[in-house]
Write the C-alpha cells for this entry.
Amino acid sequence: DSGDVLFQEEWINACKGSLKTSCDFEYSANLIETMLLGLVAYRVGKKIAYDGKAGRVTDNPEADKLLRRTYRSGWTLNG
C-alpha cells in the first residue's frame, strides 16, 4: 500500500532529524488527554472544567480523584 511507504519514509526522515512527523508525541499526548478527560466526564455524568497546566479538574472533586491512582505497595511507578 502506498500510504504505508509514505508513513515509513516520514518516520525514517523524522528519526534522522530532518522532519517533524504529522502525528508526533505532542499531538498524540493532547489527543489522548482529551479522550481520557471525556471518559472522566462521562463517569461523573457532567461537564468538567480542566486546568491543563495544573493537571486537575477544578470544578468537580469526584472527577479530579479519577485523574490519579494510589498504587498498592510494590507496584509503584518511578518517574
Summary: The radius of gyration is 18 Å. The mean pLDDT is 87.
